[in-house]
Amino acid sequence: MVSLRCTTAHHSLLGSPTCLARPRRRACPVVRAAVAVEAGAQAKVSLIRIGTRGSPLALAQAHETREKLKATHSELAEERAIEIVIIKTTGDMILDKPLADIGGKGLFTKEIDDALLQGRIDIAVHSMKDVPTYLPEGTILPCNLPREDVRDAFICLTANSLAELPAGSVIGSASLRRQSQILYRYPSLKVVNFRGNVQTRLRKLKEGDVSATLLALAGLRRLNMAENATAVLSVEEMLPAVAQGAIGIACRSNDDKMMEYLSALNHEDTRLAVACEREFLAVLDGNCRTPIAAYAYRDNDGNCSFRGLLSSPDGSKVFETTRSGPYSFDDMVEMGKDAGHELKAKAGPGFFDSLQ
């Protein structure tokens, strides 16, 4: 997983990355229905078609969304009222190259966004860390489900921690964010590209392709596979990806009915934390090869605590900053933006040029 976002050509700018937070209401809602037909059975209209990737984790998140919709709207609890539509993305099909080499994280959302805009699905369920900084014009992201644990899990069959791995040990990870933080603290280790879904990566680890790997604890928990974690890394040792552990649900910006359904599921604390982190990312996201990490959360005093990181892929240069302020949308967006500008200035223009 690469902790960066790349604004690709097919994602036209729609204001700010926080456009996901404040949907505008419009008249004449567009509500389309799909027809699911079984042989010999009467056609049944689906009120909502959920678009998702086909990986086990993506499907688990789509099913979680479906269950929450059924629980909050009685008409959606009817049989076949909600249909799950699996969409194959470019990121799922190209597994032998680093994401940074083939276009960044938008590769996990483009085909789903296209299906949404074309009316083939009504809502799209995404891992928020896969969502590019700017949403495609005509879509909006009014809902975040409650955030899971943001930490990373260390998985290894021979050691209990990164510190215990002998020099030269190979760690598999597709994430430049993880790679840079590992090499910063443990320069004697080696990190190689390691892609595939959770099950594939665990299988490769058991087959001895690498000595260890890191996975998001949130994904393991949603798959009921948390027992595979050898250890859970603190956010001090491994700062998470922007929006790690958060699920986002998008719809068309003129579809008032879907926005009404989704507003009932929105978790406000998560929405604000994600908006803060994505604003930080938007300031720094100059290209697809920049390790970036961030975490915003409500502290014990009820305020927002924020920590952000920018680094070189080899871990030789690491820039960090922290912020604290009121847990409110405007304050948190400004906090993320200000932190991003600080680290951009600290790194200097030569830093970003070197990553091209």
Automatic annotation (TrEMBL):
It holds the Pfam family Porphobil_deamC. PROSITE patterns: PORPHOBILINOGEN_DEAM (PS00533). Transmembrane segments: none annotated. Its cofactor is dipyrromethane. Its EC number is 2.5.1.61. Signal peptide: none annotated. GO terms for cellular component: chloroplast; cytoplasm. Keywords: Chlorophyll biosynthesis, Chloroplast, Plastid, Porphyrin biosynthesis, Transferase. It is found in: Plastid, Chloroplast. One of its GO terms (molecular function) is hydroxymethylbilane synthase activity. Pathway: Porphyrin-containing compound metabolism; protoporphyrin-IX biosynthesis; coproporphyrinogen-III from 5-aminolevulinate: step 2/4; Porphyrin-containing compound metabolism; chlorophyll biosynthesis. The keyword Transport does not apply. Residues 272-344 form the Porphobilinogen deaminase C-terminal domain. Residues 48-259 form the Porphobilinogen deaminase N-terminal domain. GO terms for biological process: chlorophyll biosynthetic process; heme biosynthetic process; protoporphyrinogen IX biosynthetic process. Tetrapolymerization of the monopyrrole PBG into the hydroxymethylbilane pre-uroporphyrinogen in several discrete steps. Belongs to the HMBS family. This is Porphobilinogen deaminase, chloroplastic.
